[in-house]
């Protein structure tokens, strides 16, 4: 007696809905929701209510069709899968709408004059001016903050993961967690009280000095816990077998960390660094407190007031004129593009340093 006589060939293949069935059900659900809300007028709520009604109707119809053809187990799987996809789309909608709004409003002043002129001698009722001085300030402040924070944050993470033992590690981790929740205004007040009022008068003939460097110090306080925590998690994901293999070959621990562990975790560490840079570039309160802000171009971050893109957006958005809002939207778009370019560049550089 052969296997074919014991198990019919038809029973080895389960019944399944066609691949086009979920798409067809989605279209039918959307059409029914539109007819009920817009044509029939049975419900109110516009496009939002239409989308919600179509989503609920789609889940019900999909569950019924899958249960009738594939069974209860496949029906539950399809419903939960569709729910996950819809939740993902729902989470992406605000981001898409934000980007669309930013582009629509930010292109009004996206011209050469905006990127080559400052706001010096430009009144709130003038249509000219630009954000050149703010772009310079943001680049210098973010660069200084990154130079200060990256070695400290990555070094602290290396100590916690590779060297730390006992109570001291717990204390370091506790303070890192506490710093993660510090409001940005508190970081600005700390640098204002310490650097601007106490330290800077030593180098400024006894007078407190606002500067871009003070803003970079405040941004460093905000960036440090983010870089430390993200680097720590990435270093923990490096397989222990890589370290053990290096130690077995007689490679010192410091060289194992620099040549094997760090290159392996480079992509994740760079991601954490760019998240910290993006947050620093968008901070307003600490920059206003310790940099002072200015309408003129200042290339020296160690002397004199300096502007930033976030402070420029704040200053222009609160002007009660028709020229302030377009400049604010264009500056916001420029800031987003700047962070995007820096993130792409950092990702490309991290790929070149990966352990192959």
How do the strands and helices of this protein lay out in sequence?
Blueprint: H1 3-6, H2 21-39, H3 46-69, H4 72-106, H5 112-116, H6 132-163, H7 167-180, H8 184-203, H9 212-236, H10 240-248, H11 253-264, H12 266-281, H13 285-291, H14 309-317, H15 324-352
Helix pairs in contact: 2-3, 3-4, 4-15, 6-9, 6-12, 6-14, 7-9, 8-9, 8-13, 9-12, 9-13, 10-11, 12-15, 14-15
Care to describe what's here?
By secondary structure, the protein is an all-alpha fold. It folds into 2 domains: 14-108, no CATH class; 114-352, MetI-like (MetI-like fold, Orthogonal Bundle), CATH 1.10.3720.10. The radius of gyration is 28 Å and the shape is flat. It starts with a helix and ends with a helix. It is built from 15 helices and no strands. The model has no long low-confidence stretch (mean pLDDT 86).
Task: Give a short overview.
This protein is mainly alpha-helical.
List keywords for this structure.
mainly alpha, single chain, MetI-like fold, 356 residues, 2 domains, flat, 15 helices
């Amino acid at each position: 007696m052969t296997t074919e006589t014991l198990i019919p060939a038809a029973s080895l293949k389960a019944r399944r809905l066609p691949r086009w069935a979920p798409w067809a059900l989605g279209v039918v659900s959307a059409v029914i929701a539109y007819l009920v809300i817009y044509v029939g007028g049975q419900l109110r709520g516009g496009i939002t209510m239409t989308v919600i009604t179509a989503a609920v109707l789609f889940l019900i119809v999909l569950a019924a069709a899958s249960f009738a053809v594939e069974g209860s187990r496949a029906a539950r799987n399809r419903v939960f899968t569709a729910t996950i996809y819809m939740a993902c789309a729902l989470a992406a909608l605000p981001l898409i709408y934000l980007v669309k709004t930013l582009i629509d409003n930010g292109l009004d002043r996206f011209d050469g004059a905006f990127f080559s002129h400052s706001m010096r001698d430009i009144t709130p009722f003038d249509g000219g001016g630009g954000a050149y001085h703010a772009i310079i300030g943001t680049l210098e402040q973010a660069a200084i903050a990154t130079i200060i924070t990256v070695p400290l944050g990555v070094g602290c993470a290396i100590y916690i993961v590779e060297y730390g033992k006992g109570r001291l590690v717990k204390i370091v981790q506790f303070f890192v967690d506490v710093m993660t929740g510090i409001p940005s205004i508190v970081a600005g007040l700390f640098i204002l009280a310490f650097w601007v009022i106490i330290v800077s008068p030593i180098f400024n003939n006894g007078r407190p000095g606002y500067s871009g460097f003070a803003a970079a110090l405040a941004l460093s306080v905000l960036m440090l816990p983010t870089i430390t925590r993200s680097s720590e998690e990435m270093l923990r994901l490096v397989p222990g077998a890589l370290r053990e293999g290096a130690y077995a070959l007689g490679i010192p621990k410091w060289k194992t960390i620099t040549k094997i562990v760090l290159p392996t975790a480079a992509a994740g560490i760079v991601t954490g660094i760019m998240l910290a840079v993006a947050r620093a570039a968008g901070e307003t309160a600490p920059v206003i407190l310790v940099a002072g802000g200015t309408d003129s171009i200042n290339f020296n971050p160690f002397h004199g007031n300096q502007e930033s893109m976030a402070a420029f957006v704040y200053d222009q958005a609160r002007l009660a004129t028709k020229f302030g809002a377009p400049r604010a939207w264009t500056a916001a778009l420029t800031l987003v593009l700047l962070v995007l370019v820096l993130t792409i560049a950092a990702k490309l550089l991290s790929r070149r340093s990966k352990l192959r």
